[in-house]
Amino acid sequence: MNKIPECLVHPVSIKLIRTGHPWITSDNFSNRFPRHSEFIVATDDRKRAMALLMHDPYHKNIKARVWSTKFPFDREAQHFTAGVQARLDLAFEKRSQISALKERDNFYLVFGEADQLPGLFILKLKDRVLIQFYTQFWNRYKSIIQTTLQEVYPEFKDENIWFQLRGETRELQKLPANSTNQERRDEFHLQEFGLQYLVRLGSSYDHGIYTDMSSIRHTLAPLIKENSSVLNLYSYTGAFSLWALKLGAKEVTSVDLSPKYIEWLQQNLGLNPEINSTQHHALTMSVDESLEKFISENKKFDFIICDPPSSSSDGEKRTSAIKAYRELLIKMDKVLQPEGRLVLFLNTHQVTNQKFEKTIQDNLKELKLNYKLGTRLSLGQDCPTLKNFPEGSYLKGLVLEKL
Ligand SMILES: C[S@@+](CC[C@H](N)C(=O)[O-])C[C@H]1O[C@@H](n2cnc3c(N)ncnc32)[C@H](O)[C@@H]1O
What we know:
Elements: E1 6-8, H1 11-19, E2 23-25, E3 39-43, E4 49-55, E5 62-68, H2 73-78, H3 80-96, E6 106-111, E7 120-125, E8 128-133, H4 142-152, E9 161-165, E10 177-178, E11 186-192, E12 195-201, H5 214-220, E13 229-233, H6 239-246, E14 251-256, H7 259-270, E15 280-284, H8 287-297, E16 301-306, E17 311-313, E18 318-320, H9 321-334, E19 336-347, H10 353-366, E20 371-378, E21 395-402
Parallel strand pairs: 1-3, 8-9, 13-14, 13-16, 14-15, 16-19
Antiparallel strand pairs: 2-5, 3-4, 4-5, 6-7, 7-8, 9-10, 11-12, 17-18, 19-21, 20-21
Helix pairs in contact: 3-4, 8-9, 9-10
S-adenosylmethionine is lined by residues 210, 213, 234, 236-237, 239-240, 255-258, 261, 286-287, 307, 309, 312, 347.
C-alpha cells in the first residue's frame, strides 16, 4: 500500500476528533486533501498524526469520516477489510441480543457511525437486506460487506440483497438496486408489531416504512388510548395510523399531500383484515388545508401526531420544519381536545434536541398555550447514537399534554 498522505485538519476538526466526533466537513483544509487518496491521516497543528480518515471527495459536506484513532495508522489501513468484518460482526451480535427486535421483521443490523461503520447503514426487511451508503467511499467494499453479512445470515439470498447510495444531492440519490439484477423490482409484505406493511424495493427512493421510527411507535403504545380519535399529520404510508387502530383507537384520520402515499396507506390497511378500515379516513391534501378544514368543522381529536419533512417549499420559499411549528401549533391546538396529546417530531441533524425543545417551549409561551412536556422521544434499540455526535441523533420527538 502507498504511503497514506498526512494532512493538517481544521482547528475545529482537531477538537471534534478528540471528543469522538467522526465527521470532517468541507473547509479550506479538507477541500485540499489529495483527491485520489482513499485514506488520509489527519494531523494536528504540531504535525502529530491523530486519526485515520475515510476520504470522500464527492460528498458536498462530509469530506471524510474517522475510521480509527488507534496507532499505527498505516497498519489500520492495511487491515481495513478485516476491520470492516470485525465491526460488522460486532454490530450483528449486538442486534441478536436485543429481544425487543423479535417483535418485528424490520430493524437496523448496522447503524452507521454509532456502530463504528461511518456512513454505512444495513436494514433487515424480513428476508431482504438493504445496504445503504451515505458515502461513496463504501462502493469498493460492496462484496466484502455482502460476504460478511451472508456468513452470519446465510438465509439472505443474493437476489434479496439491495444496495443504495443515499446522497445529499439529487444526482447522488439512487434507487435501491439489487446486487444480482439491476432491473429487478421487488414488492413484499413485512410485519411490525403484528401489522403487515407493503414494501417496495427498486422503484422508489424510500421503500414504504421508516424503521428508525419503529421503536418510537412501540414507546407510544401506552399513550394511544382505546376509543380515542387520532390525527396523523404527514402520514406517509400510515405506519402510525395502522398502529393507532391496532391499539384500539376508534377513529384515525391520516393526512398526506401525496396521492401515491395515501394509496400505499390504503393498501397497507387492506393487508390487515383485523383492522376495521371504516374507522380510518384518508385525506390527500396539505396539512395546512386539512387543519383549516377541521377548524371550520369544529372537529376535535384526542391525539395528534405531526411528523413534517425537515424542510418544505411552497414553490416560492423554503421553510424549515422548526420554523413551521409556530403556525402548526396554533392550528393543532384548535383541533385538540382538552387533556389531549400532541406528538411533535423533527427529523434533521441540523437542530439539536435542546434547540428543538426550547423553540417549542418558547412558541407555546408566546402563543399562551398551556401544555405540559411529557416523554422525549429519540432513536432507540437498533438505532444507537453517540454522545458527542449530535448529527447522529437526527430524529427527535416531544409529547405535549394539553392542560
Ligand atoms: C417524514 S415523512 C412522514 C413519515 C411518517 N410519519 C411515518 O413514520 O411513516 C413526511 C411526509 O409528509 C408528506 N408531506 C410533505 N409536505 C406535506 C404537506 N405540506 N402536507 C401534507 N403532507 C406533506 C410527504 O408526502 C411525506 O409522506
